[in-house]
Write a structure and sequence with these properties.
- The structure is a single chain.
- This protein is an alpha/beta fold.
- It has two domains: 4-81 and 212-288, Rossmann fold; 85-208, Hypothetical Protein, Haloacid Dehalogenase-like Hydrolase, Chain: A, domain 2, CATH 3.30.1240.
- It has helices at residues 9-13, 22-33, 46-55, 85-97, 115-128, 135-148, 158-163, 178-188, 213-223, 241-244, 258-262, 275-288; strands spanning 4-7, 37-41, 61-64, 69-71, 77-80, 101-106, 109-112, 151-153, 168-174, 194-197, 203-208, 231-235, 249-252, 266-267.
- The chain has an eight-stranded mixed sheet, sandwiched between helices. The protein has a six-stranded mixed sheet with strand order 8-7-6-9-11-10, sandwiched between helices.
- The termini are close together.
- One of its GO terms (molecular function) is magnesium ion binding.
- It comes from Sporosarcina ureilytica.
- InterPro entries: Cof (IPR000150), HAD-like_sf (IPR036412), HAD-SF_hydro_IIB (IPR006379), HAD_sf (IPR023214).
- Pfam families: Hydrolase_3.
Length: 290
């Protein structure tokens, strides 16, 4: 029996146009009506995750920033796990050395040095899902986030690092140069207090080693007195693996890389074809027939 479902956003719950399909919404509501808790598990900051979910009228809890934050359905912070101060300058130095763009995740805000850095991030996410990105639509979405203050553009990270060094949840590195990313990843992996993952081939997601989706989901399930055998996770990329390894039912999206699919118990449809809904309906139908 499944009592808790964790769902990734980009490439999973969200369609290629970054909306939530009617089928996905309906299935989430059906699961909730049957007493199953549904939680978002994403690399996005809280506001980046909350806006598209709230706009569709869904009432969910959130595991954000790859597990660095857990928030309830009203947005209240339950737990937060920051990067260690001594690691932050090491990470930024490694990324800058290899000409990898940085973004800093602090509380509900993402700091970047240009709008283009954010645009490139979402282009890479679309490409990771084997989609052709609509660059103009992505630009409009990022500009809207900047207007709302969800994303803040700064000339230098130095004042941010000086004033908020103890508050950084995640550093996201993005580049179209895969070789530079691989070299940086190898260097970052030598720092034992870090967790290095990615939500696409063009990025590195760097958090505290204790800030991972799987760790946060395990803690949430424990707080709800739900065994991990009764948890399902649905995702499409490497930052979802820590969930997949811990849950009783792991589901890879049809658009996920083959290595992710091989690591999961089940493979559902793509995010273009309501893959989340299909995965949830299989569980609901199985549990209703018992």
């Amino acid at each position: 029996m499944i009592r808790l479902i964790a769902i990734d956003m980009d490439g999973t719950l969200l369609s290629p146009d970054h909306t939530i399909s009617e089928m996905n919404k309906q299935s989430i509501r059906e699961a909730q009506a049957q007493g199953i808790e549904v939680v978002i598990a994403t690399g996005r900051s809280y506001l980046e995750a909350y806006e598209p979910v709230h706009q569709e009228g869904l009432d969910l809890s959130y595991i954000c920033i790859n597990g660095a934050e857990v928030r309830d359905n009203t947005g209240n912070l339950i737990t937060g796990t920051h990067l260690l101060e001594e690691d932050i300058h090491k990470v930024v130095s490694i990324l800058e050395l290899h000409e990898i763009d940085c973004q800093l995740f602090i509380d509900k805000t993402v700091y970047a040095k240009s709008i283009q850095v954010q645009i490139d991030t979402f282009i890479q996410l679309a490409e990771a899902a084997n989609l052709t990105p609509n660059v103009e639509d992505i630009r409009k979405e990022i500009e809207s986030r900047a207007e709302q203050g969800i994303v803040q553009i700064v000339n230098s990270f130095d004042p941010i690092l000086e004033d908020h060094q103890r508050e950084i949840y995640k550093i996201l590195g993005t580049s179209f140069n895969r070789e530079n990313l691989d070299v940086a990843r190898a260097a970052l992996n030598n720092i034992p207090s870090l967790a290095i993952s990615s939500s696409g081939a063009g990025n590195l997601e760097i958090t505290n080693v204790n800030a991972q989706k799987g760790i946060a989901l395990t803690a949430l399930a424990r707080a709800r007195d739900i065994p991990m055998e009764q948890v399902m996770a649905i995702g499409d990329n490497y930052n979802d693996l820590s969930m997949m390894e811990r849950v009783g039912r792991s589901v890879a999206m049809g658009n996920a890389p083959k290595t992710i699919q091989a690591a999961c118990d089940h493979i559902t449809e793509t995010n273009s074809n309501d893959g989340v809904s299909v995965a949830i309906q299989k569980v609901l139908q199985a549990q209703m027939s018992r």
